[in-house]
User: Fold DEBR0S1_29932g1_1 from Dekkera bruxellensis.
Amino acid sequence: MQSLAPWNPSFSSALSTELEKSRFISFNFSNTNEHGWPSTRTCVFRGFLFNDRSTNVILFTTDKRSAKYRELLKDSRFEACFYFTRLNKQFRMRGHARVISDGLYPELHIMERDEEAVMSSAEDDDETIKSRSQSGSGSPIATPTPEQSDATVFDLFTDNLEQANRKPINDPLEYVVISPSVPEQEKDASFTSLQDMMQNRHSFQQAKKEYLQLRLKPPTTEEWASERLRCWNMMSRNAKKTFKKPMPGSLLTEEKSKLLDSIDRNVDGTTSSSGYENFAVVCLFVDVVDYLDLGAGGADSRYVYKRLIGDDWKEYQVCP
Assistant:
């Protein structure tokens, strides 16, 4: 079902620490433009999808008239990099973006495993559960094969050719994000949070049975629209102003200069909701995370997390 990815607790903790001193958190966002060039911007972190960090989906907002919006429509692949200066921690993320705007929202398929596949899964036996519980991680650290021992982070990021293919923004995604209308107790019954299952149920077999009985659904069209409005309502007055200004990147004329001045002085004759038609929410569906912790005293550590299927993740410890 829906559960925190193994990288998420460290990431969320770093966000909280950074926000103690900062009004907002910015990060570098990169995608590919129509000519094949990398295109990088600084964006502002706007929280998690549906204000629920267990979705593992990161949000920022953009203008529908911007170049990056048009680029993402054609090629949804992205990389994002967060660096937390107070903690000396870096999170590089890779995946596919989706947008919420007028008539456009993510189409998600939640992978449902049949009973035979679930019951026979080698990772889901009780011994694996115990090992995950002892390690304190939602996913075990992978033991590399001799062939993998000299693999680099770059290799781990790019060995899935299907993930590397260009995907338009309206392609369906297989990602576990459950409708906000599903009761919280069912969302919390995560199939991949095996440690929690063992703590809350008599046996893993019982947990499997509960998993198979639940029929979880992705968000509805109405819920996507509500999420866009929620994000808009969280924007400051000055941030909302940017969406009613002339097209970003267009040449500045005398007429546009006068319009910008009137908007800045709040005398342009529009209401606080003006500009919403240009407002879009970008959802970052993360598939790979490279987490670098530059610890005190030179005790550095680095992990790479790869999403496999559903909300299953694999963790690699790599050289810092």
